[in-house]
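Q: I'm teaching a short session on how sequence maps to structure, and I want students to see two examples side by side rather than one. Could you give me a first protein with its sequence written out and its structure tokens following it? Keep the formatting plain so it prints cleanly on a handout.
A: Of course. Example one:
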Amino acid sequence: MGVLKKGCRDRSKAISILSMNLMFSLLDSFAADRNKYAPILYKALTFIMVDSYGNLELREEMLNNFINLFTNIPSMPIQILCDPLMK
């Protein structure tokens, strides 16, 4: 996961978006399987969202992925994402 987190912060838009999409794909699988690493991955994506909020392309892609995630897995707690964004 560390490589993907670094990839999300890469200067290349293609690499950062690809890394973020792969992390969301992992989170979707982990959450469906109730994997113990799903919350860690979810928090990592939340921090990436907050850190890269100024990057319009990445932010839009992340928001679309979060919308899909919450649609596909309604039990996913949205509060974890909302708290840092509201601050």
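Q: Perfect. Now a second example for contrast.
A: Example two:
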Amino acid sequence: MNLKEEELAGKHLVAVSLDADFQGKHYEVSIPIERALDPRNEIILAYEQNGTDIETMHGYPVRLICPGYIAVRSAKWVSKLIINDEEADSAP
């Protein structure tokens, strides 16, 4: 699906983690899509650290890195990304 820039205005990038709570609900965090797409913010999906696969404790297979946000926004164990009208409801 190709979305135009004007269709993204006001939306949120939601990262869904493989990590789940005791009821099985997967942890989700979100940031405004404008921040995610702005190259000055250096938002990245990391799968390697220093040339090797990122370690499990640091988020293997993929970790969302969000400089400028509290660390909890840098979601570990990312399984999928969603563009949504609303913020993630499990975000602090």
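Q: What should students look for in example two?
A: Point them to this: The chain is about 10% helix and 35% strand. Also worth mentioning: Residues 33-37 form the longest helix (5 residues).
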